[in-house]
Amino acid sequence: MTAANSPECTIIVPCFNEAGNIFPTAEALLAVIARYHLDAEILMVDDVSGDATKSEIVALSRTDPRFRLVEKSLPRGMGAAIRAGVADARGVWAVMVNGDLSDPLEAIPEFQRLIMQEKCDLVLLNRYGKQDDHSQVKWSYRFYQFLFRYCQYLAVGAAYRDITYGYRAFRLDFVRKLSLTGVGFEISPECSVKTFLAKGRVGETYGKQTRRTIGVSKFKFRKVWKGYVEVLLRGMLHRFGLAKYF
Ligand SMILES: Nc1nc2c(ncn2[C@@H]2O[C@H](COP(=O)(O)OP(=O)(O)O)[C@@H](O)[C@H]2O)c(=O)[nH]1
Ligand SMILES: [Mg+2]
After folding, report:
1. Which strands sit side by side in the sheet containing 168-171, from one edge to the other?
2. CATH code for 9-239?
């Protein structure tokens, strides 16, 4: 870090029952940080995991002060974890990285360029830009994503290709003004829709998401759909001046 308390970038990693992924994810992030000379801190946000997630993060933070454990209280949720990370972040910009080694981390320098040089407020990673990039994304997820994107476009009007992928980067001061409230996975479309409604500058880059090989996914459609519908409705009401969303 350039100054102990002010890195340029904060990497936020929500972690729930990811014990087997903590060290491999940390290694992958350190390799990218070293390769591109990034000035970064890494916040790993645990959510009262039932496995060794917390102790693994503590062990990491003892060996390398760039890693910090963020402990949040219940209720659990990926969105609540990201908000805890955003509140604790000391960087100028942040990148949200899934703690399961599924994200194309080589996109991080392009995230940095789009935010620091092109002055984007939010940079989305599009998994649908090239034929092979979404080959490992489950068909059921692709179907729900398509449905959500289409309905969102009609209701709110944001024409982003990959509006729901959590792996993305943003300026911290900009996102703090959006007053994000999502508790679960709906935090990602909420952030995209609010950025659109706030007329933020949005950039896009490309990359291939792969599947986790350790641990299990916590994404359950029957649990998350309500949050996505709420984003649509509240975004639409805000668009037409009927009720403020933020
Ligand atoms: N802190 C925290 N992290 C979570 C929670 N739910 C999911 N995550 C993390 O969010 C990331 C994405 O979740 P994952 O289960 O891989 O969802 P998928 O990629 O949509 O299948 C992973 O790093 C999870 O550990 C939660 O309730 N709390
Ligand atoms: Mg995942």
Report:
1. 67-71, 40-46, 9-15, 93-96, 168-171, 122-126, 202-206
2. 3.90.550.10
Strands 93-96 and 9-15: parallel
Q: What residue segments make up the domains of the chain, in order of their start?
A: 9-239
Tokens standing for residue 15? 């972690």
Reported as a single tens digit per residue, the pLDDT across 56-95 is 999 999 999 999 999 999 999 999 999 999 999 999 999 9
Q: Which residues line ligand 1 (CB under 6 A)?
A: 14-16, 18, 45, 47, 76-78, 81, 98-100, 217-219
Query: 3-class DSSP state for residue 68?
Result: strand
Closest CA to 228 of 150, 134, 127: 150
Question: Is residue 3 pLDDT above 60, yes or no?
Answer: no
Q: Judge if pTM exceeds 0.90.
A: yes
Closest residue CA from atom 12 of ligand 1: 98
In this structure, the number of other CB atoms found within 10 A of the CB of residue 6 comes to 12
**How high is the pLDDT of residue 4?**
58
> Does residue 131 register a pLDDT over 90?
no
> Among 12, 16, 83, which residue has the most ligand 1 atoms within 8 Å of its CB, making it the best to mutate?
16
In eight-state DSSP terms, residue 141 is H
Residue identifier of the C-alpha nearest atom 7 of ligand 1: 78
Atom of ligand 1 nearest to the CA of 98: 23
